[in-house]
UniProtKB/TrEMBL annotation:
Lineage: Bacteria, Pseudomonadati, Pseudomonadota, Alphaproteobacteria, Rhodobacterales
Residue ranges occupied by any NlpC/P60 domain in the UniProt entry: 136-259
InterPro entries xrefs: NLP_P60_dom (IPR000064), Papain-like_cys_pep_sf (IPR038765), PG_Endopeptidase_C40 (IPR051794), SH3_16 (IPR041382)
Gene: ykfC
Enzyme class: hydrolase
PROSITE patterns found in the cross-reference section: NLPC_P60
Similarity annotation: Belongs to the peptidase C40 family.
Organism field: Sulfitobacter dubius
UniProt entry keywords in alphabetical sequence: Hydrolase, Protease, Thiol protease
Protein name: Gamma-D-glutamyl-L-lysine dipeptidyl-peptidase
MF (Gene Ontology): hydrolase activity
Length: 260
């Protein structure tokens, strides 16, 4: 049976047009007015497959995830030139940090730079500090370092942004930034990212439980977005394994290594 998260519903695929997320973050819902499954960020591309009653049924370009977003959150696609490479940033009215801010953007948001000054990049949304942007085709090298940018971010089920993120959203943000393909949900990640390994933990290994995933920082420490702390936090691996099992959520189901 096909996964409806990744396979468009043929009964709804009445059109196919490109669009772009035009708000800082948009909920990708299971059904119109339904629960949030994931989120898509400013500048991310989607294919609109169906539209009705103010909702658009879309498939996200970054991971193929299907769901509903409000039509009002979508705009005309632009060719992005840069991505936000810091936890969050602002777009300002002018190339002046004291000018009014127009828009807040999370890590991973995609923008189109039209011109640059010494300190700012001009985009259709306003002026963004140059140091907060990286070329769209550039890749980071250390997923755990990217995950650490989200330390303290509030836990949010289905979240993908600096304002709220969940375990699989954190892992996806970290891996995609490093050019490693990664689906949106932890069960999908457990099946497709890297390969199973055993033995000592290495930096950037992934540990899975039923419905949860964490990223290894070193042989004793992991980082994860978790409901225990209600935030992205570091935790001792042995302590976390014992705590999660004692809480009734079972043992580690997989230990995988991206890039293997």
């Amino acid at each position: 049976m096909s996964d409806p998260r990744l396979t468009p519903d043929p009964a709804l695929a009445s059109q196919s047009r490109a669009a772009q997320v035009a708000v800082p973050v948009a909920d990708l819902c299971r059904r119109p007015d339904g629960p949030r499954d994931r989120q898509v960020l400013f500048g991310e591309q989607v294919t609109v497959l169906h539209e009705a009653s103010g909702w658009a049924y879309v498939q996200a370009e970054k991971d193929g995830y299907c769901g509903y977003v409000l039509q009002s959150t979508l705009g005309t696609p632009r060719n992005a030139t840069h991505r936000v490479c810091v936890p969050a940033t602002h777009a300002y009215v002018s190339a002046d940090l004291k000018s009014p801010d127009l828009l807040s953007l999370s890590y991973g948001a995609r923008v189109t730079v039209r011109a640059e000054t010494k300190d700012f990049a001009e985009t259709p949304q306003g002026h963004i500090p140059r140091g907060h942007l990286a070329p769209i085709d550039s890749h980071e090298e250390d997923p755990a370092q990217i995950a650490a940018l989200f330390l303290g971010t509030p836990y949010l089920w289905g979240g993908n942004s600096r304002w709220g993120i969940d375990c699989s959203g954190l892992v996806q943000a970290a891996l995609l930034a490093c050019g490693i393909p990664c689906p949106g949900d932890s069960d999908q990640q457990e099946k497709t990212v890297g390969a199973p390994v055993s033995g000592a933990y290495q930096r950037n290994d992934l540990l899975f439980w039923k419905g949860h995933v964490a990223l290894v920082v070193d042989g004793e420490t992991m980082i994860h977005a978790n409901a225990h702390a209600m935030a992205v936090s570091y935790e001792n691996i042995a302590d976390a394994i014992a705590r999660i099992e004692a809480g009734g959520d079972g043992r580690v189901t997989a230990h995988r290594r991206p890039g293997v």
